[in-house]
């Protein structure tokens, strides 16, 4: 099974892989610059979500091109990383959380491959948005490497690129949110539309606005990621190795006809 990593903030180059080379893939949504490396004899594709130099803000990432490029390469499993703010006092900076649900508060992003054109009109089930097999592997691996790893969390995706107001954070918490981030949606949605297994390991970098005693900065987010860099990379590699080579989940079931898209 071909696997890919989508690296979020702080993870721009797959130095944990061997024999890394550049690769460019053309899609109907544009070109994607990615990297391919090896780990234990397995080829692994890597996309830095924000670009190698953190060029793309969350709302301008070409999510559709990224996911379609992976599909074109035959990728069946994506392990993504993402920095998050915490709304939940039990989830503290430096912890990993393996979300099980999301709430979408994005505003301007193309959300689907199915816009009535070449792909037709499709309504997918999102009862279980994240691959249960990947979730289980992240949870076991995170705990095995000694990182506090929470089983489940409701990820609220905001449009960004600004951080939230305390009033927004209070609202998200009232609605059941545990985490807030800017990039998890529509990536998870597009993966499912393509029948790709998708799981995400989120790292809490800060308490969200109004919960944190201080104002928020992107530097603070990067600093916490930097401090936990080695652990995060270790978790990613171990998760990829530990995942079974055949799929026991239902992520690819009910995948729509993609012949018009690829
Ligand atoms: N809000 C949104 N996205 C984030 C945050 C936050 O507080 N921290 C890291 N990514």
Poorly predicted regions are none
Q: Note the beta-strand portion.
A: 25-35%
By CATH, the topology is Rossmann fold
- N to C succession of SSEs: EEEEHEEEHEEHEHEHH
> Helical stretch count?
6
Summarize model confidence as the mean pLDDT.
Answer: 95
State the CATH class: Alpha Beta
Q: Which hetero ligands occur in this complex?
A: hypoxanthine
Basic shape = globular
Terminal residue distance: 19 Å
What's the story with the biggest beta sheet? 11 strands, mixed
Helix content: 25-40%
Structural class by sheet pairing and helices: alpha/beta
Describe how the helices and strands are arranged.
Elements: E1 2-7, E2 18-27, E3 30-39, E4 42-48, H1 63-72, E5 75-86, E6 96-98, E7 101-105, H2 132-144, E8 149-151, E9 154-158, H3 166-174, E10 179-181, H4 184-193, E11 197-207, H5 218-227, H6 229-242
Parallel strand pairs: 1-4, 1-5, 5-11, 6-8, 7-9, 9-10
Antiparallel strand pairs: 2-3, 3-4, 5-10, 6-11
The protein binds hypoxanthine.
Hypoxanthine binds at residues 83-85, 158, 163-164, 180-182, 205-206, 208, 216, 221.
Structural overview:
- The protein has 262 residues and is of the alpha/beta class.
- The chain has a single domain, classed as Rossmann fold (3-Layer(aba) Sandwich).
- It has six helices and eleven strands.
- The protein has helices at residues 63-72, 132-144, 166-174, 184-193, 218-227, 229-242, and strands at residues 2-7, 18-27, 30-39, 42-48, 75-86, 96-98, 101-105, 149-151, 154-158, 179-181, 197-207.
- Strands 1, 2, 3, 4, 5, 6, 7, 8, 9, 10 and 11 form an eleven-stranded mixed β-sheet that branches.
- The longest helix is centred in the last third of the chain and has 14 residues, at 229-242.
- The chain starts with a strand and ends in a 20-residue tail after the last helix.
- The model has no long low-confidence stretch (mean pLDDT 95).
- The structure holds hypoxanthine.
- Hypoxanthine binds next to strand 5, strand 10 and strand 11.
């Amino acid at each position: 099974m071909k696997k890919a990593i989508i690296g979020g903030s702080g993870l721009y180059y797959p130095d944990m892989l061997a024999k890394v080379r550049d690769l460019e893939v053309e899609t109907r949504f544009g070109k994607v610059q990615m990297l391919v490396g090896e780990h234990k004899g397995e080829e692994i594709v890597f996309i830095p979500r924000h670009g190698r130099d953190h060029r793309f803000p969350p709302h301008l990432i070409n999510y559709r091109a990224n996911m379609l490029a992976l599909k074109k390469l035959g990728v069946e499993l994506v392990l993504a990383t993402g920095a998050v703010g915490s709304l939940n006092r039990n989830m503290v900076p430096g912890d990993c959380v393996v979300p099980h649900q999301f709430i979408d508060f994005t505003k301007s992003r193309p959300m689907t491959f199915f816009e009535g054109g070449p792909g037709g009109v499709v309504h997918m089930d999102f009862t279980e948005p994240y691959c249960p097999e990947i979730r289980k592997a992240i949870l076991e691996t995170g705990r095995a490497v000694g990182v506090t790893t929470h089983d489940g969390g409701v990820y609220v995706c905001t449009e960004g690129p600004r951080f939230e107001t305390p009033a927004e954070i209070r609202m998200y918490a009232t609605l059941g949110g545990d985490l807030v981030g800017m990039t998890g949606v529509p990536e998870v949605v597009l993966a499912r539309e393509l029948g790709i297994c998708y799981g995400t390991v989120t790292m809490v970098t800060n308490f969200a606005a109004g919960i944190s005693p201080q104002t928020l900065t992107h530097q603070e987010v990067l600093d916490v990621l930097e401090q936990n860099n080695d652990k995060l990379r270790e978790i990613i590699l171990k998760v990829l190795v530990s995942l079974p080579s055949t799929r026991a989940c239902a992520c690819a079931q009910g995948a729509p006809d993609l012949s018009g898209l690829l």
